[in-house]
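Review this today:
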Amino acid sequence: MVRTETKARARALQLLYAAEAQGRTVADVIAGLARLTGPEPTVLEAAVVLAEAVEADRSGLDGLLQAATEHWRIDRLGAIDRGILRIGAGELKGGRVPPKVAIDEALWLAHHFGTPQSPGFVNGVLDRVARDLGRL
């Protein structure tokens, strides 16, 4: 069974992806995603909080990620990997989630939504971000 927090992270990823793909804000795409949430409104509520926090600090998170991805530009990453990394970096930076949990949850997203190469890439980048932030 998938935990509510994990479902919320997956919904946050969907919100971030939809907003980026449509060139809109997270607030603008919430209504469309709400129909997909089904009988778990707490999942959507948590997803909105997370996605809006990531969106609000996108430039700061991208700075952390850019420092950790020496030979990659953030805008050249796939939208899914970029969203997963932003969520993970946001949770690492926020400090409310233990670093190993933030990284493990990002890996779960990478396994379920990314390419076969995504989990290893996400793990390496977020490990570096956590170390740069002094969280590991």
Q: What stands out?
A: DSSP finds seven helices and no strands in the chain.
